[in-house]
């Protein structure tokens, strides 16, 4: 699961698909950006205008930030929502306050921001691929699982050494470690997530288990989910982790793979599916599957799985920090702890819900773009993140403070999980999507059938090697 070098972008089919996807909201030739409908956004005289791809969690619209504030403020005012953000304020106001802080700090350096919406997931990857190939790319791009691959391909600008040193000293590893290649940092996430273990105290107590006691080992997890399933008698189940053959599954049980010393790929970007450590982890997944309603654990509809959690139908869950607030909204009495360890395992995690911001090699305003990223880990932005209580701050001075520990105990647990051995999902050297598909199919078959796990992983290894070499 370490970062590795991979081949450069190739493939005319991907290029054609990507270019056809680059519709409205893309970059313009003069570098001023668009308003999302193809209309040009003009630069303010004397200002450097940088183009930034939207991050959904903090988006307030598409266009020049200053032009978006008035409309967004009116929307909140009309809805009776106060614009004065204080701890505990409605989460709706968070994006506005976030963007205002960025805008105000950059104005002091004569920098203004134009946001562009290129979508998310596969459409975003296609547009970014096209932008790299055409050398027509915003000053800051954003993404999740694809970003380490872009760094490995040499498409991103490394952070200036002085800035990188400051980040290593002051910022939690989860925010930058997955974007480190050969000692250089290529991206930063202002509010990344990693997974923790959650449990529904009511269901656990009904199974005769102490609801206030956390569990620390895989065997305890196995035992507890079995007890809860038996106590539920078909009305509720033990649960465990989402394990569908998609990135939602890989991101969550990837933490278990990492804890047990396994990996999805080796240092050369080749599949590492059939290790003994991976077989042990898949065996755990198989046991956890027996503590779910039939088919739920591997259901490709991620929403169905987490809907079952919110309805109190499963007791244990490995997921990101947003689970705290969502569970409180659903009226669940929640327990939270680090993910249990295997017998020979060590604490480790995989970033999830991490929107990494990077500066492309072909960006036109690199210095101003890095100034934007510096604001992302500044104290005002990170204090706002801390006060929101939906993610942990990445700034060590806030996350490790006694005040934060006392005010936000659940999020402090999440902060601690961000500070250990944290990595991102790997990118395979060739035909990345097909390699992941082969892995996902092997895991589902291991979970849902009586086939020998090691044999199934051996077969998947051979198939994947035929694809990636």
From TrEMBL:
Phylogenetic classification of the source organism: Bacteria, Bacillati, Bacillota, Bacilli, Bacillales
Full protein name: Extracellular solute-binding protein
Domain of life according to the entry: Bacteria
Organism expressing this protein natively: Saccharibacillus sacchari
